Amino acid sequence: MALFITKRLLMALATVLVVAVLAFLLVHAMPGSPGAVSLGAGASQEAIDEVNGRLGWNDPLLAQFFRWLGDAVQGNLGTSLIDGRSVSADLGNRLPVTASLAAGATVLSAILGIGLGVSAAVRGGLVDRIVGGICGLAVALPAFWIGIIFVYLFAVQSSVFPATGYVPFEVSPQDWGMSLALPVITLAVGGAAFIARQTRASMLEALQQEHIRTLRATATPTWKILYIHALRYASLPIVAGIALQFIGLFGGSVIAEQLFAMPGLGQAVQTSVSTHDAPAVQGVVVIATVVVVAVNLVLELATKFLDPKLRAS
Amino acid sequence: MIPNVAPAPADSAPATAAAAVQPKSGQRAAFSKISASRLFASPGGVAGVVWLAALVVASLTAQWWLPYKTEDQDFTAVLSGPTAAHWLGTDELGRDLLSRIFAAAAGTLGTSLITVIVGVVLGTALAMVAAGRGQTEGGISRVTEVMMSLPGTVIILAVIGAVGTNIPLIMAILGVLISAGIYRVMLGQAKSLQSQLYVDAAKVDGVSTLGISLRHVLPGLTNTIVVQSALIFAVGMLIQAGLAFIGFGPPIPQPSWGGMIQGASQHVYDAPWLMVPTGAVLALTVLAANAIGSALGKAPNTGVSHLPSAAARGQRSVAAGAAASVAEAGAIPAKGHLSVRGLSVGVDGGTPLVTDVSFDVGPGTVLGLVGESGCGKTMTALSLLGLLPAGVSATGGQILWNGKNLAAATEREMEGIRGRDIALISQEPMRALDPMFTVGYQLTAAIRRLRKVGKAEAHAEALSLLEKVGIVDAKRILKTYPHQISGGMAQRVAIALALSGRPRLLVADEPTTALDVTVQAEILSLLRSLVKDTGMSVVMVTHDLGVVADICDNVAVMYAGQVVESGGTANILDNPRHPYTLALLAADPHANTAADMPERLATISGQVPQPKDWPTGCRFMARCQFAGSACAAPVPLLPSGSEDGVVRCVKADELAVEGLEWLATEVPTHRVLKIVEKDLA
Fold first, then answer.
1. ipTM above 0.95?
2. Which CATH superfamily is domain B38-297 in?
3. Closest-CA residue in chain B for A221?
4. Helix A125-140 and helix A87-123, axial crossing angle in degrees, nearest 10
5. pLDDT confidence bin for B3, thresholds 50/70/90
6. What is this structure's pTM?
């Protein structure tokens, strides 16, 4: 087990490093030098060269990368070319927004998805077909479109939730919840459908196992067979599905943040890419990767813990 | 926006009873080639194909039929709803929505296709390489794992930062990211295709790895490739629209679906209609691709639920209620006496699997149900506990237990019988135990439930049960998970589990078949001593006449869903009357002692007919050495003359008089190994 965890940790570290290199290269392939980007149109070539020189833009790539890496390890991701603010500080402010969004959407997806998937598998017949139809529709509808519909229904027609904006938890927990509601629900629609399908398939597979017959042969009550034994057996692929969903939802937050005007990481990617703000792009890619890889690692360990065969070995 | 396409949990088809009848035949079907009939058999699939075809045709011919140019602005009708002039309304600049949607379609579909081609080709190729050359698999899998755990959206956006909004290039890079998921889906299939015997044969014949991949593996993957392509196509469209929505679409005047929805989102307050047409077309197109994928991807019946769904359970109790009114309770209630009368089991609303089966099991006796695979032995045995697989049920006759007809009992009544009165042990002990719980948990839970005792008492009882079934270190075994013990040990645990409710009747479905020969004998002697000690009776399903001779008091020989001969074990084995029994004995190497071992063991040519092919006459006729014209008429079960034995053969008396034996069939001379004595010396 310790060996397994060590291997996974190394793997996660390697993933982050690969992405850091990738981000570094991509940023260097961006059109325009940092000087040109930061000084804007109309700047003189001398001024641009001066900024580039100060930032070490003309140093060998390797030297630049290791300088960046050295700073990054100490928590310094550089300064924005556009507004001169610290990238780390900016992302630090944004991370909670995206994290609450993605975590909320994942939890809601898991609850809805497992509930729907289990009832489809267990009840069968009409319920199964209705859930199947809803899921089919939910994965086909783009999140941003669903989001607009929700805004129309819950913010325009009846002002249950605020249409846009984000209130930090420290300011008002209640408003924080309200401001998250629509984006979270928007993202959870597709996620729940995905998890519902995964759950349904896993539950059906679990119910095909022979030990279910043994349980029935020893007069185990149906609820216990379904919710203790079959769901336990199905839990491994379901948790794996939830992990995948979190990755997807973390990316999906770009859209939700854009649609609901939330100051999260997704919005930072979108603006920094549009403005060619190299340090910001590089920083946000690495931060997003670290979060996703870390969450994945935790969920993977959870999966292993759920499986007696792997736990013992 | 979910670029990390997980191996889509295929909408597995509802398990049907057909698979229950032949669990082995369905497996190869998983590699079926792409089947147009499967696509067109599904209404969703047809609708999907029609919609996509119509969209492609409409968008390719757009320039000839579109009412407006994409940039035409009609300032008299800004943000209008559907009108005669603008069928789907107009946007904030008065541009016709219908025209813009269809003008954007070709680009959207075309660029999504790039993702499909890159992703599927790369994913499939990697899977074939990994499956073909084992040493590459670890590396490739590691890389794809990393790719799947990346925040794909963020990376795609960073790529856009570097290369600009070059949609085809971005969609190609998206394809590379997605290929990891496709690789995962393909790898399992490619590997199992690689492990097929005919692939081994091709390897022996010297076919190159590449040749094998292309000739034997790729064709088996075609259906999955098409399914994945359809699903990825849908994902590609959604992601592309998502990118356009956040401002990374095609350059400005050019229409795109995502961009149009972005425009609509600005007018959700004053013109909510605006988002409807584009969203609907996008959603319909994604739905169409998904529908095609799931129509083709429907897994062939892979397995059968051991717990009927609530809907099916409802049906069953209705059926049981109906059957109950027919059933007559005329038998004499005897404690611990099982009497099966004219039992029929069949697929719901279809093929019968077992017809008109009758037998009796008295207290403390062991009945053997014997026959080849596919004769309905297991179905008969499971029906005694009401544990037939989903979609199969008792369709007639009676199972009288203590005077009560179990064939018509409700699920609730059966729950009171199972474990307490009638218990089950099955063929594969490893699969019969829940892999997720310890032996101790499973055993004590059953004991607490069935004996209504407390935790401590149940634990003590579990220990004593395990000792009773011959497990020495019971304490340790209680703490283990099923995968940590051997098959023989697991079968002992399964027997202990079956005994936890002190049953009067034990149904044993080939309890020794999956075990090593040495363990088989131990399990049989355990069962024998349990019968002696507890006085319970056993219904033993087996195809092994040695087991019958060893442990059974009575035998019912089953063939093609019928009892063809039954009676006392000694009678049947010494004086078989039915040709099928004769044949089974002649074909059994253990039934012949070394002295009278024939030079060649007999065989029974052909196979047990499928239920749908059962003739109206004798079902064994097609394989019988003694068949005559009289066998074509339905054959009744008649007393065989010895004790209470019965036999279902019109020629039984004739055969007995003439003393005929089932003979080994002639083998063409060129296939006989000529063994000359000097070669042996």
1. no
2. MetI-like (1.10.3720.10)
3. B415
4. 150
5. very low
6. 0.84
